[in-house]
Design a protein that fits this description.
- By secondary structure, the chain is an alpha/beta fold.
- The chain is built from eight helices and seven strands.
- The chain starts with 8 loop residues before the first strand and ends with a strand.
């Protein structure tokens, strides 16, 4: 049974591709009222919006070019989206990057570290800060779903920076859960395992190039979850049916 998101006004980051795109489309299928799409991949993000707007449902979607690592971009994007939707009920935050895969720590570049941490961790802080500010001014509060990863939470990573950033996103979310008035704003993180997204496919391609282990590559590809499977969980987490849920939600 699909989740019911009737009347929900939602910001989804990273909705140009992968889990974010699948979740945006599924949220529309679940009757969300409006979806604001934040991404830096303008063409792909607009394609997501067009897919939603051309469907038979009543959901409307609109794109904003938002770099979540940039404070002014996040502030402007959230303010514009909230004005357009006349409020915000849900943040589904999927935007993130993976750089520095398979680089040894002794040669890991500081610029790579900073780029990944700025996007994945600081970006989560920046958008959560803005969204909480708006949700606090609404009588019904809202729901915030961040995205961690098995990398840095239950396992390692091919990238020091990525694993560190996703472990930190998980920790940041737990701190928000403790300090935000949870009777008003529910905060959780989804922790996806390996999923068939452009980022993961590129990571596996790099691994194959380095190791030459075709059998391991084929096995990893066969074991990937589909983005739609994760989107199904994310849309449920965003719905009122999940209002008593707390803590992280893991996928394989």
């Amino acid at each position: 049974m699909p989740s019911d998101l009737t009347g929900k006004r939602i910001i989804i980051t990273g909705a140009a591709t992968g889990i974010g795109r699948s979740t945006a489309i599924m949220a529309a299928e679940c009757n969300a009222e409006a979806i604001a799409i934040f991404d830096v991949a303008d063409t792909e993000a607009q394609d997501t919006a067009n897919t939603i707007n051309s469907a038979t449902g009543s959901t409307i979607a609109k794109c904003w070019h938002v770099d979540i690592a940039d404070r002014a971009s996040v502030e402007g994007g959230v303010a514009a989206a909230v004005q357009w939707m006349q409020g915000i009920d849900v943040l589904l935050h999927f935007a993130g990057i993976l750089h520095g895969a398979f680089e040894p720590i002794e040669s890991f570049e500081e610029v790579t570290w900073d780029r990944v941490l700025d996007t994945n961790l600081k970006g989560t802080y920046l958008i959560a800060k803005q969204v909480v500010t708006h949700m606090n001014n609404q009588p019904n509060g809202g729901t915030i779903i961040t995205t961690a990863s098995g990398a840095g939470v239950t396992a390692g990573s091919s990238s020091y920076a990525y694993g560190a950033s996703k472990g930190a996103v998980h920790g940041f979310t737990m701190v928000m859960q403790r300090h935000i008035d949870m009777s008003k704003i529910r905060v959780q993180d989804i922790v996806p395992g390996r999923t068939r997204t452009p980022m993961v496919l590129e990571n596996l391609r790099q691994q194959l190039e380095i190791t030459g282990d075709q059998a391991a590559y084929d096995a990893a590809i066969a074991n990937l979850a589909d983005p739609e499977d994760v989107a199904r969980i994310a849309t449920f987490m965003a719905s009122d049916a999940a209002k008593v849920m707390r803590g992280p939600v893991f996928t394989r």
